[in-house]
Design goal:
CATH topology of the largest domain: Rossmann fold
CATH architecture of the largest domain: 3-Layer(aba) Sandwich
Order of helices and strands: EHEHEHEHHEHH
Largest sheet: 5 strands, parallel
Strand order of the largest sheet: 2-1-3-4-5
CATH class of the largest domain: Alpha Beta
Number of helices: 7
Distance between the termini: 32 Å
Number of domains: 2
Number of strands: 5
């Protein structure tokens, strides 16, 4: 059974990519076929940063759920703006699905920054900081509250499932 009229905010660094227009068209078609209305972030370069922030947080408040591209962006971590949007949505109680976060977190850190031969902790980076190794694809503060899927299509298909959508509450570990 599908749930029509679910509004889903689409977060991610794709707004900066040359393929943004194509991606937006693909996700719109796929979502609408499933009774989902995608909401895309405002990203017009002529708008000031405060306007973009206010608009995007308003759009997240209007959304029923969020999907977020959590691929590594300019390093071993997801885009910081996307991470903020995920945290903001989670704080509002919106269910969040992440996608494109492949590979274990500590392996991504090692790939980008290298590991220290001095292992005071189980794993440390070259700067000497411990690198968490909990078997997650992301930092635990992202991995715990969201549902991680391989692709945006899988995320939208799961949202389209009424049962999955109803049960998708942030995984509180209080």
């Amino acid at each position: 059974m599908s749930r029509p009229n679910i509004q889903v905010y689409v977060a991610g660094p794709d707004v900066f990519a040359p393929h943004w227009d194509t991606f937006r068209q693909e996700i719109t078609q796929y979502a609408v076929e499933r009774g989902i209305t995608p909401i895309f972030p405002k990203s017009e370069p002529d708008d000031g940063p405060a306007d973009i922030y206010r608009c995007n947080t308003r759009l997240i408040r209007q959304a029923d759920a969020v999907i977020a591209n959590l691929q590594c962006f300019r390093g071993s971590e997801p885009d910081s703006g996307t991470v903020f949007e995920v945290g903001f949505a989670t704080a509002l109680g919106r269910p969040v699905w992440g996608f494109n976060a492949t590979g274990l977190y500590h392996e991504k850190v090692a790939e980008h920054y290298g590991l220290s031969p001095d292992r005071a902790f189980p794993i440390t980076c070259k700067a000497g900081y411990a690198v968490e190794s909990f078997g997650q694809d992301l930092n635990l503060m992202l991995a715990i509250p969201l549902r991680l899927r391989a692709t945006w299509q899988e995320a939208l298909d799961e949202i389209n499932s009424a049962e999955s959508f109803q049960s998708a509450k942030p995984n509180s570990q209080e």
